[in-house]
Amino acid sequence: AQSVAQPEDQVNVAEGNPLTVKCTYSVSGNPYLFWYVQYPNRGLQFLLKYITGDNLVKGSYGFEAEFNKSQTSFHLKKPSALVSDSALYFCAVRTLSGYSTLTFGKGTMLLVSP
Amino acid sequence: GAGVSQSPSNKVTEKGKDVELRCDPISGHTALYWYRQSLGQGLEFLIYFQGNSAPDKSGLPSDRFSAERTGGSVSTLTIQRTQQEDSAVYLCASSLASGSSTDTQYFGPGTRLTVL
């Protein structure tokens, strides 16, 4: 079975500071990893994904994520946070041999203060 | 082009009534998914459709839940005899083809269901 853990329910950061939202996964086989963001009363918006190749993946709105196979992690990062980045962030995983669906983490609320 | 659309955006119903939720996927996407998002449960997979193949219903929580997809496009999720625990946001997503695990799923805005 595949699973995703987002160990922090909430992350607080001041505008202009770097941010990290943590994600770890457990799968059999090679993982395909995704990050989505959800703004209030909106659906999920795709940010980025890791399939293969370079461990550092760049996505929308200046976000990036680093795949670390030895630590089974896929943390989301941004060098300089904006107040408008405040939202709920979901990490998700699927595998080639697993479901075609995504398994999501519980989500992490990011709050960026002015 | 247009994204995934869902209707209604909000639905309030009384316990015991049936409800239908609609999803219009992105044009050309052959795979369609339904998820449920509720407090304390996160995002749960419900069902997915791939082209004309039989749907994977393994995520449906009970036989009160069913879904169909007409003509390989629009999908309707039906909940019969609604219960209060059915209250949640129901999200629909589509992707080009579920046969590829690298496919990106694109989500609609969701339908917020409240069962009184």
Condensed summary:
Chain A has 114 residues and is mainly β. Chain A is 0% helix and 53% strand. In chain A, the strands form three sheets. In chain A, strands 2, 5, 6, 10, 11 and 12 form a six-stranded mixed β-sheet that branches. A four-stranded antiparallel β-sheet of chain A has the order 3-9-8-7, with no helix packed on it. A two-stranded antiparallel ribbon of chain A has the order 1-4.
What is the string of SSEs of chain A from the N terminus onward? EEEEEEEEEEEE
Number of strands of chain B: 10
Strand content of chain B: over 45%
Mean of residue pLDDT values of chain B = 90
Number of strands of chain A: 12
Shape of chain B: globular
Provide the low-confidence segments of chain A as ranges: none
Number of helices of chain A: 0
How would a textbook summarize the main sheet of chain A? 6 strands, mixed
Span of the ends, CA to CA of chain A: 41 Å
Largest interface, C-beta within 8 A:
A-B, 25 and 24 residues
Please, what is the oligomeric state? heterodimer
Q: What is the SS-derived class of chain A?
A: mainly beta
Major sheet of chain B: 6 strands, mixed
* Strand/helix succession of chain B: EEEEEEEEEE
Describe this structure as you would to a colleague.
The complex is a heterodimer of chains A (114) and B (116). Chain A is built from no helices and 12 strands. Chain A is mostly beta strands. In chain A, a hairpin with a 5-residue loop joins strand 5 (31-38) and strand 6. The model of chain A has no long low-confidence stretch (mean pLDDT 92). In chain A, strands 2, 5, 6, 10, 11 and 12 form a 6-stranded mixed β-sheet that branches. Chain B is an all-beta fold. Chain B is 0% helix and 47% strand. Chain B has strands at 5-7, 10-13, 19-24, 31-38, 42-50, 65-69, 75-79, 88-95, 106-107, 111-115. In chain B, a hairpin with a 5-residue loop joins strand 6 (65-69) and strand 7 (75-79). Chains A and B meet through strand 5, strand 6, strand 10 and strand 11 of A and strand 5 and strand 9 of B.
